[in-house]
Specification:
This protein has about 350 residues and is α/β, with parallel strands linked by helices. Helix content is about 50%, strand content about 10%. The chain has two domains: about 180 residues, Rossmann fold; about 140 residues, N-(1-d-carboxylethyl)-l-norvaline Dehydrogenase, domain 2 (Orthogonal Bundle), CATH 1.10.1040.10. It has 16 helices and eight strands. Helix 9 runs parallel beside helix 12.
């Protein structure tokens, strides 16, 4: 018997950063009963009274029906039909641990987090399996794709992917989020979508650095294309479908993140290329750069799966080993000549 799709009406969004805020606002505008959780009580008060998030997307007037809370208890979780996780990757474990006893497989678990946990090398779905159990993890849905939060909030046309091992759950999330300005496609490859979502942030740092160094479009095209190859190689080793990297969550999100100053990761790389130290560049961002933490985890995963990823390796060296950025560039462009594709027989 096939699984049934679910039409949740009560949604809880964990995290009031850029993406959590834009998703909560989008669902609220679509007529859903949405509550957003934030650590900061001033953010909660501002959303409830002023319909503004003073820290993220502060220029956007939020839906007047969107509610914000600072604490989550059993009575709240009892009514929740779908949980959207939008907290920074490195904070996800601590946030979700307290909710595990209150969560069951009837609720839809949606992940919009992009990254890899440094301490374990785990992707979000692997973390879900550890915290909630394998059954819930297998039914969880990854929501990702080329989507700057500000443009979603402005209702500019955007297309993303909902991926899950459960086709019915992917379809449920598609139905939940889909709108004329926010198109949602489904996929059965959440692993590939998570790998692409995490690694594109690391490649974006390299792309921004090229621009900061004064390099032009030829160099950016090379970084994006070879970065896509690195994402694909590691993803396939981890069990992903290579076609995923040719879609919205792969090359689409990679192109977006690698070519715009709206990207925090591109901006981090650009400042490094301009000569700022890592500490100085991080301080000026004003928000989390997932690529910074992901670079460390991606370097370890590349070693674990024995995949040669020279761009990721050099980004890691610049961020964590104090390698001068011009030296890292020289290491990349003086590598031995190779075939572009290497097919196994």
């Amino acid at each position: 018997m096939s699984e049934q799709t679910i039409s949740p009406a009560n949604i809880l969004v964990l995290g009031a950063g850029n993406f959590g805020t834009c998703l909560a606002n989008h669902l609220s505008h679509e007529g859903k009963n949405v509550t957003i959780w934030a650590r900061d009580k001033t953010v909660v008060e501002s959303i409830n009274k002023e319909h503004k998030n003073p820290k993220y997307l502060s220029t956007i007037n939020l839906s007047p029906t969107l509610k914000a809370i600072n604490t989550i208890d059993a009575s709240i979780m009892k009514t929740v039909e779908a949980l959207v996780v939008a907290v920074p990757m490195q904070a996800m474990r601590s946030v979700l641990n307290s909710l595990a006893p209150l969560f069951n497989s009837e609720k839809i678990l949606i992940c919009s987090v992009k990254g890899i946990e440094i301490s374990t090398g785990s992707l979000p779905l692997q973390l879900y399996a550890e915290i909630f159990g394998s059954n819930i993890s297998k039914q969880a849905v990854v929501l990702s794709g080329p989507s700057f939060a500000i443009e979603v909030a402005q209702q500019l046309p955007t297309a993303v992917v909902a991926a899950s091992h459960s086709p019915a759950r992917a379809k449920s999330v598609q139905n939940l989020f889909h709108a004329p300005h926010f198109r949602v496609y489904t996929s059965d490859d959440p692993i590939g979508l998570e790998v692409a979502a995490a690694l594109k942030n690391v490649i974006a740092i390299a792309s921004g650095a090229c621009a900061g160094l004064g390099l032009q479009m030829n160099s950016m095209a090379a970084i994006i294309t070879r970065g896509l190859a690195e994402m694909t190689h590691l993803g396939v080793k981890m069990g992903a479908n290579p076609l995923t990297f040719q879609g919205l969550g792969g090359v689409g999100d990679l192109f977006l993140t690698c070519s715009s100053s709206k990207s925090r990761n591109y901006s981090l790389g650009f400042q490094l290329g301009q000569g700022r130290t890592v500490a100085e560049a991080l301080e000026t961002l004003g928000s989390v750069s997932e690529g910074y933490t992901t670079a460390k985890a991606a370097e370890e995963l590349s070693k674990r799966y024995q995949v040669e990823n020279p761009i990721i390796h050099q980004v890691h060296n610049v961020l964590y080993n104090k390698r001068p950025i011009k030296d890292a560039l020289m290491q990349l462009i003086t590598r031995d000549a190779k075939a572009e594709f290497k097919f196994s027989k």
